[in-house]
What we know:
The structure holds two protein chains of two kinds. Chain A is α/β, with parallel strands linked by helices.
Amino acid sequence: MSIKIGIPRALLYYEFYPLWITFFELLGAEVVISSRTNKQIVESGVQHTVDEACIPVKLFHGHVVDLRDKVDYIFVPRLRSICKGEYICPKFCGLPEMVRHSIKDLPTLIDITIDCIKSNRDLKNAVFAAGNFLTEDRDLITTAFQTAYIAYKEHKMILKKQLFPPFKRKKIMVLGHPYTLYDSYLNMDLLQKLEACDTSILTPEMLPKPVISHYAQNFDGQLYWSFAKKLIGTVLYLKDTKSVDGVIYISTFGCGVDSVVAHLVEKIIRRDTTLPFMLITLDEHTGEAGINTRIEAFIDMLKWRDSDENHISSHG
Amino acid sequence: MKITFPHMGNLYIALKAVFEDLQVEVVTPPPCSKKTLALGTQYAPELMCVPFKLTVGNYIESIEKGADTLFMWGGCDVCRIGFYNTLQKDILKDLGYDIEMICVESLNTPQKIRKFFKQLCEVANTTHSFALIALFIKGIQLVFRLDELEELMIHARPREIHAGSVDILQASFEKEIRTTHGYKETYSLIDTYKKKIQKIEINPTKEVLQIGIVGEIYTVVEPFINFELVKKLGNMGVDVHRSVTTGKFVREQLDFLPFMHSNKKNVHRAAHPYIEMDIGGHCRHTVGDTVLFGEKGFDGVVHLLPFTCMPEIVAQSILPTVEKDKNIPILKLVLDEMTGEAGYVTRLEAFVDLLWKRREYAQDEKMLSRN
Ligand code: SF4
Ligand code: SF4
């Protein structure tokens, strides 16, 4: 029977899942992904995490609990830096510790450290460390990782193809951490709801990285966080290209990174563009009705601006 | 040029003296107050951590008092501190203040120190970097002496015979320091007060509780934000031990220098079974010092953290395990602009009561087992 490795469907799962799934499968493991976020996961997450933690970290704990009795290992990497010179968030860095001290009776954690602060090549160490849980064969690990990396890149390409979706009336840039944008339970199907309103969605994931990096250089100040660089780069790109009709930022309550980044993003947009902007802050208690009303009002406003300028019927 | 800097405990005393010796006019920010915090809260992003808000308040108050140059620190870190300068510059610019800013990054490598001196040369309008280095060392000396003075007060407070003796001296020190200028005067005033404190009548054998304070540095050393925790505990009959102080922080930053020693390695070693990495902020210290306090047999630990403080939330998740392993009760106090003093004091008093009871209980147990 093959070894079962659980991957929590939370945090950077949304960024890297094709990579790690392929990698572990090629090394002969059976990969089990935790269920999609649901009420029970939210509740057990809240119950197993310190009150002050942000919702995404609470959800992560919930997903770990979901996997606890189903697998031999759970993949909980410690991420300090995923790109040279950039950090992520202190909580990513202490994730295995938080999990280990908050949840009892855990299977072994694959708690490898990913720290590329000095050089991107340091990723290698993490890959071998992860692979060693399954095999000693370094060649096998190398090939598995190379293949997995290609799978990951292909997945990224697919995301980018969505950059030119079929023509719709309005284009909206939705900003936020990938794990708030792509966890539709957490954001209450926000992306689907927007699409249903005859708008097409753009996320930072859909923009090519070099473009984002290029624009991020225009920022006056140092961007120490990968996430800040991505979002601020994206916003500076929007400012120059004016390629969308409105911007929505989905943030989560208690997120230290958002307290800085959402502020900077809002500032740039309000100061340097005329784009409508809306900040949605999610927490455990956010009601769906309230969100729906805000989305509808936002979309109405976009259309109204249009009809005002171009005399197009608002019923169209 | 009129220079100012943010408050962080007693650091202002050392900074002021050093800048004065550089012949720079100094505007010391008014002590942190409700007004400072209100100003900071008004102009800072809503969900920023409270140290940021208070420093913004300090800047605004100083600028209104005539400061035109800001001396700020920050720099690359895993945490939000890396963004302090960028955001603060932006906020002050929006407020229409025309000011010069000197940003110091952390000083943990020789290159960074060199850069720091270059900036200092600009401030002082001098090229005599030797004199500057000498002055820099003097500044550090002051920080250390101030720490010592504080330690003396902390030791005397719970043991004083006449209630309030230490607090009276502390108040008069803080008043006199305002009219003291330069290194020499400051040094000798600190010295005078050290002697005065040592002369306070105390009961050296009085039974006192031993409580460690751990957490994010700013909330530990800035009395305004922690409602004068150190003083309050002292007056409740507690000997207080702080995990981080300005002096310790300076030591740790500079301990690659041959003449500088810190306890950092020890703390990291103690933290190691629980957390191995530097994840930003003071997480490793919080955990490591709690372990050490537990091993020393302290009665309890108070964990201070700003609301939404990322590294301390990680520490907070780990601390229950340490609490159990080392059998040391921990009181967590989350601080921000909404924290009310009344509730805070109630929790503190309840905690101190609990620790006394625990101690009595332990002593009874010992007696029983002996008989
Ligand atoms: S980036 Fe924000 S949401 Fe993500 S883990 Fe850190 S604090 Fe939480
Ligand atoms: S350590 Fe805490 S207080 Fe300091 S910058 Fe980070 S979040 Fe803010």
